[in-house]
Records
---
Amino acid sequence: MAAPHDAPLRALIFDVDGTLAETERDGHRLAFNRAFAELGLDWHWDEALYGRLLEVTGGKERMLHYWRGIDPAAADAPSAGALVAELHRRKTRHYVDLVEAGAVALRPGVRRLLGQAREAGLRLAVATTTTPDNVHALLRAALGEAAEDLFECIGAGDIVPRKKPDPGIYLWVLEQLDLPPGQCLAFEDSPAGLRAAHGAGLRTVVTPGVYTLDEAFDPAWALLDSLGEPDLPARGRVAGQAWSGVVDPQALRGWVAQDGLVRS
Ligand code: XBP
Ligand code: MG
């Protein structure tokens, strides 16, 4: 319900895949293919096919969806769940190995904004469909051993029964933070992620990535090409206005203050 906008900004809630880093093409996709090869399957997800499969969030759900497309009888057999679980266990191990080897880097502005947000007293959280091990590996590899102390709450994977675009993971994180959505902002890269955040009542900063650049997004509160750096300003639209600059706590608080309405 709309309420007068006297609620201050308290927390930033980040999606992981595509938002913090371009993990899908050079991380998850390769890890799936390694798991398929390890178990002798002739499945191979090239970049284009993987882009289409990303419509299904969650690795186990994505594999089952693909399998149903090529062999529905086998995918619906009683033994299918065990194979998907084994593939996913192996895929997670490969993904963690890839991330630890430096296969994916943070997107522009992410490291800077996380540090500035903490200095500015904003609380940080994660809301993602990916497996917790993947989040921990990425944060440690990209930000160092103390990275996880930055985040007060990490909502990930099967902790909620339904994955994005269901709002469950965002609602779970809001409950952990004990904050109304009007005092938080979400950061997303995909239409499914945006729908999940909107479903939880969150205003959302969307930074589309390699796989979501050409997607149709629901109208987003902020739609930018990145979070920006001083030498690489972000460009896009915020609350219906063209905007260019560096997304930092001052900018975010200013946008919230000017927004006129806060859902709380
Ligand atoms: C990310 C995903 C994830 C990863 C795979 O979506 O869909 O499922 O591709 O992770 P979002 P798992 O960025 O919207 O959270 O294999 O660990 O499920
Ligand atoms: Mg994402």
---
Amino acid sequence: MKILAVETSCDETSAAVIDDAGSVLDVETISQISIHKKYGGVVPEVASRNHTLVILPTIQKVLEKFSKNSDLKIALNNIDALAVTVGPGLIGSLLVGVNTVKTLGYLSGKKIYPINHLEGHIYANYIRKSDVEFPALVLIVSGGHTSLVKMLGHGKYETLGQTLDDAAGEAFDKVARLLGLSYPGGPEIEKLAKKGNPNTYNLPIAMEKSKDLNFSFSGLKTAVLYLVKKTKNIEKKDLCRNFQDVLIQSLLLKTAKAASIHKPKSLLLSGGVINNQALRKRFKEYFSKNFKNTRLYLPDRSLCTDNAAMIGVAAHYKSLKSPGKNWYDVDVNPNAKIDE
Ligand code: KG4
Ligand code: ZN
């Protein structure tokens, strides 16, 4: 089944076409980072307005490339079904993608696969590989979420733990802002951390001694704030290095704890923070040494942040089991949970 997928849950407008085998034929993503940079974060109203401006040209572009025809109606005839992110995310942003896809569904009569954004992030791991064995353990670390999820099969999830306050990406963004770095903070902190000394500062490892599988990063953010306040000439690159190290360590500790309890055959990392090369390296080293029976999966770096390819691939796996929904049964769900 050929699927046209759309993602607009935050500040990326993205469309992709997936073929019958679940391979990504094309993906087009327009990022609004340069627009939101001057505000230091995503402004929801501005995000939805900009989605409205570029959603149709983005869809047009992938369809045109795929069907080699600039007539949207003819191009759409070559597609079998539609997919769209329905949540979680910013309601105004989600509405743009969902209403656009519902309209295409209404006009063409094609079925729609409503996709959970976090499920999309998980399926970024399936873009190049399809040999994941279950049960799998999934660590989702994005700007809005930090969760450990047990995946028992396609579409079968059980949340094991999540952040009690800030998400890991949010902590990167907030600490970056505190240090006067630009948005999004993750890549900026990573850049500085590469040159930083790991031993200058001594930030705490969040939830190091807690017994559950939850996370918490607001204490770490506050620790950075106090350190900056009391230190005269703070060395930003050393602080970035220390912050990044302890944040990664806290993600690693909880993931390792979950892996010891649940003994997964696969470990899937997903979400924008997985872009971080230090994190990728640390997880690879640690799991190849300590969990030899668990295979680690990492999406390509370019597919860790929001994109429609991962949404289309998630829809592909749903299409093997279900026919999709009619346009009038599809709605946004800004607070959608992965295991409901
Ligand atoms: O998954 P994503 O694109 O959007 C959400 O669904 O939230 O993730 C965006 C988050 C931002 O907080 C950003 O700072 C973080 O991912 N991020 C990174 C890196 N690249 C993006 N965090 C750490 N290191 C990176 N290289
Ligand atoms: Zn995301």
